[in-house]
Amino acid sequence: MNATTQAKTQAPAQVSDAAAPLLEIRGVVKRFSLSGDFLEQLKFKRGRIVREQKHVHAINGVDLDIQRGEALCVVGESGCGKSTVARTVMGLLHPSAGEVHYDGQRIDDLSHKALMPYRRRMQMIFQNPYASLNPRMTIQQTLEEPIRLHHPDWTPQRIKQQVADVMASVGIAADWGGRYGHEFSGGQRQRIAIARALAVDPEFIVADEPISALDVSIQAQVLNLLMEAQQQRNLTYLFITHDLAVVEHFGTRVAVMYLGRVCEIAPTATLFARPRHPYTQALMSAIPRLEDDRPQHIRLEGEVPTPVDLPSGCVFHGRCPHVNDRCRREIPSLIATDDGGQVACHAVEEGRID
Amino acid sequence: MPLLDVNHLDVRFALRRGDVQALRDVSFSLERGERLGIVGESGAGKSVAAFSLLNLIAKPGYIAGGSIHFDGQDLTQMSDRALRHVRGHRMSMIFQDPMMTLNPVLSIGEQMVECLKAHRRISSREARAIALRKLEHVQIPSPSARLDQYPHELSGGMRQRVIIAIALLLDPDIIIADEPTTALDVTIQAEIMALLLELCEQHNVGLILITHDLGVVSQVTQRMLVMYAGRVIEQGPTREIINDPQHPYTQGLINALPQMATPGSRLNQIPGSMPSLDNLPTGCAFHPRCGFIDRADGTTRRACIDEVPGFVTSGNCRVACHMVAEMLERERIPAEEIR
């Protein structure tokens, strides 16, 4: 039996241990080449022809577990690799190293065909609802397409029924079906994008900044919708965002990323009550709050280094107020803390900061 | 007299299907050195309000009525030549996207010198010295090296610092900042806002901050306007509005923030979305989404549907809402009877 048929027979069976994580990411690395093709990589230096390759190190060894029914939020600033994690999980990008396991099965090395059953079980919601809906398809067509793809044996009536059900469940009026994406506002489009993700009854949703492009009052509507869907359908979320207020509300656990590495993972309440990693602390202090007093904002030195030339040791060392020699030399790994989280920081490990 | 006094401003866009009114009866003022926030969702008219202050409304838009008095002169009646003196010199603007504002083919120094020489009769050397000083003010590391760099060589946060330096070049009285930190990360946003605040306080520069972020407004500004569908619906001291919003829309906006709800619970959403400007509901533009209208009695309810609400004063705030007006009326009568 080859890998393809094996995956096919296993996937629909869904025999799984409830305690095992739904998704496991093991040491995933993703590099993007900057140097073009082979000939462009050749450089003439000191009288010799040498081959030079430059890479963007988008993610450098990320380990994450996502438990069934939880919402794992990944936060970080632009360029920290959070979207790359989402795309790698979905199989839209191939990891340069490391493994992605879904429900006990390794999926990052599967063929396109073998991946199909998993594609039905995991769906994605994108940031920009203006770009993620095909402008030439009606809403009905948009919602039917994934069902046709994943259930080629369904009758047209059954497909129509499924579309009607999913539209009702996300609060889309039935008469929207004949209209096109441009006729709707951003919030309505995001509703349609969510409906499309839910149309094939997935169990796992990757949402990449799903509310960042929306207005405040609409953000609340869409977040409510995502939370309702989670309760009704028992969904598991991987939620990518830069908005910590949303994370505090929505997340079961939070992973904070910096420059392609996870620097802290903790249950949401724990992380917000007591951020351990110096970067997490700075990030938290930067949230503009409604309260009166001007915030005690922790100012970080300098800026995020480029992911092309990664700093040695801890990627945060150049900006960290607690840096010492070991931080500059040695890459910290995630260690468990006493309150249920994990943090990658030498200073926390050595007890230099609490 | 306030430094800037906007009265009954009415801005329209002449489209083939007729005029669309982007601003209706917008009035506000700004004292010297004061910081004012303009808050609203997309389509509320906050950017149009900012652009019209400098008469930067591009065709087919035009100012159809009202006045903008700046230092005693009406900007809407000014010649282009006189306006050019005000723009950049007395009032300058910071836009959302730093890459769109900076000229990619000129070095930072060239752009700054160009701006200075357009407004003042000075030598290039003097201009360069001023540019360098302004870059120092915005706390850019190694400012003299930056003068010869091009915009693409700087990070987003650095570019926004350069833009603030350019906005400050001619020592303006007012800076208008249109979503200055929306394109930036949280930590950078916090730094830029702190810098802007510090510079405004130091140089006694007025700030008009346009944003959708209530957190930023509450940290930076002293007074704020809330806009909805082309109108100002509530204005007053920032703290009072944030702590005790009167208008149902402002209340809804603040209550919809995730930080206002217990984690994991349902958020207090406002139903529906903002109407488009060419198809506004009758009466109060917010009434189809208003959660309080069902609780209003017959007369007030009819007023919400039929009449555009005028401003009533509640504490130090001014609110355009029939229901708030009715509530205040009811409170006022017993108070007088007691007396």
From TrEMBL, chain A:
SMART domains: AAA. CDD domains: ABC_NikE_OppD_transporters (cd03257). Keywords: ATP-binding, Nucleotide-binding, Transport. Gene3D superfamilies: P-loop containing nucleotide triphosphate hydrolases (3.40.50.300). GO terms for molecular function: ATP binding; ATP hydrolysis activity. One of its GO terms (biological process) is transmembrane transport. Residues 44-284 form the ABC transporter domain. Pfam families: ABC_tran (PF00005), oligo_HPY (PF08352). The keyword ATP-binding applies. The keyword tRNA-binding does not apply. PANTHER family: D,D-DIPEPTIDE TRANSPORT ATP-BINDING PROTEIN DDPF-RELATED (PTHR43776:SF7), TRANSPORT ATP-BINDING PROTEIN (PTHR43776). Belongs to the ABC transporter superfamily. This is Oligopeptide transport ATP-binding protein OppF.
UniProtKB/TrEMBL annotation, chain B:
Pfam families: ABC_tran (PF00005), oligo_HPY (PF08352). The keyword Secreted does not apply. It is an enzyme of class 7 (translocase). GO terms for biological process: peptide transport; transmembrane transport. It is found in: Cell inner membrane. Keywords: ATP-binding, Cell membrane, Membrane, Nucleotide-binding, Transport. InterPro entries: AAA+_ATPase, ABC_Ni/Peptide_Import, ABC_transporter-like_ATP-bd, ABC_transporter-like_CS, Oligopep_ABC_C, P-loop_NTPase. The keyword Manganese does not apply. Its EC number is 7.4.2.9. It is a peripheral membrane protein. GO terms for cellular component: plasma membrane. It comes from the Bacteria. Residues 6-254 form the ABC transporter domain. It catalyses: a dipeptide(out) + ATP + H2O = a dipeptide(in) + ADP + phosphate + H(+). PANTHER family: DIPEPTIDE TRANSPORT ATP-BINDING PROTEIN DPPD, OLIGOPEPTIDE TRANSPORT ATP-BINDING PROTEIN APPD. NCBIfam families: oligo_HPY (TIGR01727). This is ABC-type dipeptide transporter. It comes from Halomonas lysinitropha.
